[in-house]
Amino acid sequence: MLLKYIYSIMVFLCLSTIAINAQITKESMPKVREVAARYIKENVPKRFAGDKKVKESLNKLNDDGIFSDLKFDSVNLNHQNFKNQHKISVILRDAFFRLSDISWSCNKGVINGDEIKEKIYKSVIYYGNIELKRKQSRARWPFSPFLYPYCASVIYFSFYNDMETVKCGKSSSELVKNAAETLKKISFQAFTEPERKDVKEIYSIERFRNSTYWVGGNFGYRYPFLNAALCNDVKMLNLIWDVCNKAISHVSFNTEAEAFWNEGLTSDGSAWGHGRQSYAFGYGLDGIKGVLRSLRLFSEVGTDQTRLNEKQFERLYDFAVGLTWLQFRERGCLSVVGRHNFLYKRSNYIKRIENYLASLLSINPPTDIKNKLMDLQILLKKNGQNLPDGVKSFWNNDDLVMRGNRFYVFVNMISSRSIGPETVPSTSSAVNYNLGDGTTVILKRGDEYDYSAAGWNFAIPPGATCRDTVLPKENIWRGFSSKHNFAGGIGGKNGVAGFILEKIFDTEKSKYHFKELLGIKAYKSYFMFNGIMIALGAGIDNMTPEQKGNIITCINQTYLQGELQIENNGKQITLEKPYERTEALSMLKDPFIMRQREIGYAVFPGSGTLKIAGKSENAKWDEINKRNKRTKRKKKHVNVFSISIDHGKKVKNGSYHYMVIFNRKNFKDICKIVSLNRFKVLVNSTKLQAVYNSKEKCAQLVVYDPQAKISFDKLTIKSSRPAIIRLQYINNNQWLLSVADPTQNPNLKSITITINEKNFEVEMPLKPDCGKQTDINIEL
After folding, report:
1. Interatomic CA distance for residues 702 and 725, integer angstroms
2. What is the pLDDT at residue 442?
3. Cα(492)–Cα(512) distance, integer angstroms
4. Model confidence pLDDT, tens digit, residues 140-194
5. In the prediction, which pLDDT does 510 show?
6. Phi, psi of 310 (to 5 degrees)
7. Which pTM value belongs to this model?
8. Number of DSSP helices (H) and strands (E) in the chain, helices first
């Protein structure tokens, strides 16, 4: 029996070895190149200008292979300063784009290639040699590793017959030989640029690890299969297969050091990019799509060893599900699209997910995964309105989502483990600085921000607690994190999340450019109950009151449409646009209730000043994202509804408590929900924040201090450690207890929850799932 067991293990190990070896040989290279040539012909080049523009570009190409409007007269080719080298990069970019478009059009028969290919080859040599003679420079990024090699593959395989004669040694034309050699050298830059001083060996898998320039989306943008095929490089192709195979693995806060990619699929179903930044749409998705593209091309070569294992397919499916939670009705939610936030011309994120599913199905997953993928395709019909309701926690990204058929809430938190989205005013989104500070996306239709974002005050985005100040204009590629290692959440039918905000930035820049954004502390938590969110804030401190600007918690900024209904102290009034109103929360006897665009808000008595406004604002589209300058005929004014709590300039131990209510047909129903006091705030302090839903008998707790305990409805709860807790009644004496560790301590084996002096030891997940909730059934 023992020998049989050992034999089984040996067989498994042999099969595993085969599974990660593409076994591309010299003999299989003709098939590899045929596959690459077919891919180029069947796929429209990136940013293809269209037939009309292609013909215009061709008219500008002279007999020497130089475009009349793409000369280097205005630059010094030998001058190495960034500005000068960037100008060269842009000229080369335009030239290579034109050459790839013209070549592909010849390949498709739109243009007679025989008549013009001599000019194409001369142009390749002219512009290619300028690129190849350049020294290392930041100005070559991202052109040299991504764009030029990709265009080279389009040109090469569009004239594949000519290029093949060179490879076979049959071409007598020096022009064709020189063009082929130039394209090969340009293409190989996908494996050499930018220079890695830490990994000199090009044919090393380490070259494709532990550098944001070489992993995730930046791996996919290299089109490595096409470039290795062009170079006829067997060794590189086998290396690329190995990278693709190993890239379909998870990274998490506690496995970052040993994970294959430190930017890629996270174990919670999302992805990181540009560091520990929640970037599922963009670098995360682009990286995996690049991997799948290469895998599909490998499979077309016909090697049996390019099959992934079932666990890898499960990871890819989980990522597809995760993507559905990070969009609502085709819109990607704030922060997970990074510097592409606030584009006037929005992208269709459902389409992106559908394209990903198609890519995944193209590599022939196992039957059970295939069926789940096809079921997900069906759910995505009607703009994704068929997706199931509920709450999901992304514990590796410090995010929490609640969604229903007609509402969506997304909370983006930060901890010392995670970072907020990047801000790049030089080229893209200029206003992301505070989007990790508890930003809360609140949507009913899905398009609210399309019509209002250009009029927001981005110093205080929806849900965040920030200083109302003028935002800087400095590029930060990795965003801010929090000083505190506390952020976590629990999902399911209901959900809860909380974190400690005290933003930090780890460079000297923070002392000068970002000081107005720092110096704020707050304990923030969110309690989700099937279309109702309760948000609590405690311990709000302005630790640098010498800075200009009051501390504000923005409840929402959104599209203003129609009237605002208000109920306070038993009186109801209606405000028509434009309006501005303030209320001292300390003077309120009852919650201040509002309804705007089918969403209800209730702000409870406390400290600070409630501010409400509904008016037209100047649209700042070009200011919030520089790419919007490309779009003409933008609206000059937008209607904005804003609601916020002003804590003042010298706030110490400030707090707030508000509700957001969906799925109620009229204002009377909203007021009834609030007046019934069904959702009772048990505690709102820096030790514990807790809410109890008396109708469903569901208690949700964010425990910052394990010394804290809470009593309600004949129950007393205490935790042995900081924790996120949900206690949900099932029936009779049965309850569901859910617990998550917001500190993600890899050495923490369990958390003991004491309920009515009865101890329940709840095991905590190990790596890579530290932070994931554990659910157990208990009897009380």
Report:
1. 6
2. 96
3. 43
4. 999 999 999 999 999 999 999 999 887 777 767 899 999 999 999 999 999 999 9
5. 65
6. -65, -35
7. 0.93
8. 19, 34
d(CA 701, CA 689): 6
Does residue 203 register a pLDDT over 50? yes
Instruction: Quote the distance between the C-alpha of residue 566 and its chain's center.
Output: 37
Give per-residue pLDDT as tens, 593-615.
Answer: 999 988 999 999 999 999 999 99
User: Closest Cα to residue 511, out of 549, 564, 554, 474?
Assistant: 474
Coil, helix or strand at residue 49: coil
Average pLDDT over residues 237-256: 95
Count Cβ neighbours within 10 Å for each residue of 204-224 and write b for 16 or more, e otherwise: eeebbbbbbebbbbbbbbbbb
Contact 215, 287 (CB under 8 A): yes
Give the amino acid at 427.
T
Separation between Cα atoms, residue 270 and residue 253, nearest integer Å? 13
Instruction: Yes or no: say if 440 and 535 are a contact pair by the CB < 8 Å rule.
Output: yes
650 burial class (0-12, 13-18, 19+ CB within 10 angstroms)?
exposed
Q: Which residues contact 216 (CB under 8 A, 6 or more apart)?
A: 261, 263, 264, 271, 272, 273, 283, 284, 286, 287
Please write the tens of the pLDDT for every residue from 317-371: 999 999 999 999 999 988 788 888 999 877 899 999 999 999 999 999 999 999 9
Cβ atoms within 10 Å of 660's Cβ, excluding its own: 24
Cα dihedral 652→500→774→372 (10° resolution): 130
At 481 the three-state DSSP class reads: strand
DSSP notation for 323-385: HHHTEETTEEPTTTTGGGTT-SS---HHHHHHHHHHHHHTT---HHHHHHHHHHHHHTTGGGT
H-helix or E-strand spanning residue 715? strand 715-719
Helix, strand, or coil (residue 493): coil
